[in-house]
Design goal:
6 helices; 70% helix; mainly alpha; elongated; 115 residues
C-alpha cells in the first residue's frame, strides 16, 4: 500500500524491503529515512558544505536555479557559483547580455573575477 504513496528515492528504498518487512511501519520508516539521509549527506559532501551557512546557500541556490531558464542555470553551474547573491548577479548579466556578440568572452572575463 505504501508503495503507491512513495516516489523517487523513497520508493527505491521501499522496494529493497522484503514483503514481510514492508508490513512493519518502523522498518519502512527506518529504511526510507536512512536512504534519504545518506543521499543528503552525499549531496552536501559533493557540494562542499562545511557549515550551516554553506547549507543555506546551497538550498537557496538550488531553488533559485529552478526558477531560471535552463541556459542561465547551466551558466551558474558552469562557473561553479556557490553564493546566491553572486548567482543573481551572473543571472542578471546573462539575461541582459545574451544577444551580445561579445557575450561569451565577457561572461568568461567576469566569471574569473566576480564569481
Amino acid at each position: 500500500m505504501l508503495q503507491c504513496v512513495f516516489t523517487g528515492r523513497a520508493q527505491d528504498a521501499y522496494l529493497t524491503l522484503i514483503p514481510e518487512e514492508s508490513k512493519s511501519y518502523d522498518k519502512v520508516k527506518s529504511i526510507v529515512l536512512k536512504d534519504l539521509e545518506s543521499h543528503f549527506s552525499r549531496w552536501c559532501t559533493a557540494s562542499r558544505v562545511n557549515n550551516f551557512e554553506d547549507l543555506c546557500h546551497l538550498i537557496v541556490l538550488e531553488q533559485f536555479k529552478i526558477s531560471l531558464p535552463s541556459f542561465v542555470a547551466t551558466c551558474i553551474n558552469k562557473y561553479k557559483v556557490k553564493v546566491p547573491s553572486k548567482a543573481a548577479v551572473l543571472a542578471e548579466f546573462v539575461l541582459t547580455h545574451k544577444n551580445s556578440k561579445q557575450f561569451n568572452s565577457e561572461v568568461e572575463r567576469r566569471a574569473s573575477s566576480d564569481f
